[in-house]
Amino acid sequence: MDTITRKTMLYKTQVPGLDYAMNPVQGCSHGCRYPCYAYLMAMRFGKVHSYAEWIRPVIVENTLDLIKKELKKWQSKIHCVHFCFSTDPFMYQQPEIQALTLESIRLINAAGIPCSILTKGILPSDLKNLDQRNRYGISLVSLDEDFRKRWEPGAAPYADRIRALKELHADGAMTWVHMEPYPTPNLIAQDIDGILNTIDFVDHIDFSGLNYNPVVQKYPDPSGFYSSMKSHVIHFCKEHHIQFQ
Ligand code: SF4
Q: Which tens digits make up the pLDDT trace of 129-164?
């Protein structure tokens, strides 16, 4: 796998509810076609020049050195580190990336700082031995594998994502599902209850629609649809004692 170096790694996010974040990789072999906001930004700022380049991820080879250096400076200011906003920390079938993420989490946890992880890959069982304050999440907007192959072609099969999350939950980990970007019925006709019932064990669910795809605007009243789906998810969460975020 190709590598790059960077000057900094940990950064303060502007996202409400999140503290610091890091992205130890550039690009993402999941290649989501919603499209992926991180891909659009990477193209805009000249980090990559094509979709083909985006789906060939490159590792930031000095990630661990940067984390060690930055933790020494900012350890007391950092309350949590989120993985990731511009790539996937447990990219499917990318063992080098998975190993780098695990080592990064270990370093951060060793400094007394918990992490939050979000992936469309498979959360490894090694996570169960780490800081109990860590929070593990998967992105999930469907259970239909034909939909996944079309819209998230390189990501892990849905059932495998859920299985890994459930195993961590059974070991006492804090788990969540990020239901975004949820598709409108003109992209796929599906029953949201079918999805929710497979994830009724998690601690948190968040929900949001698909913003960057013109097909969504062709659906009659997309905002009405998303408002009704959000209410439905909130109701489900209340019934199942799950926190809605
Ligand atoms: S998993 Fe995330 S970063 Fe990777 S292509 Fe999909 S949306 Fe983009």
A: 899 999 999 999 999 999 999 999 999 999 999 999
User: With a 6 A CB cut-off, is 120 part of the ligand 1 pocket?
Assistant: yes
Residue 90 shares a structural domain with residue 201: no
Number of structural domains in the chain: 2
Same domain, 112 and 126: no
- Domain with 16, as residue range(s), is 1-119
In the chain, the largest separation of any two C-alpha atoms, in whole Å, equals 53
Same domain, 87 and 183: no
- Asked whether the CA dihedral 231, 236, 238, 244 is positive or negative, the reply is negative
Q: Are 49 and 113 in contact (CB under 8 A)?
A: no
Rounded to an integer, what distance in angstroms lies between the CA atom of residue 36 and that of residue 53? 14
pLDDT tens-digit readout, 180-223: 999 999 999 999 999 999 999 999 999 999 987 888 989 999 99
Task: Give the nearest ligand 1 atom to 84 CA.
Answer: 3
For residue 87 and ligand 1, the question of a CB distance below 6 A is answered with yes
Examine the domain organization and report whether 137 and 78 are in the same domain: no
Could you tell me the two tokens for 29? 């072999």
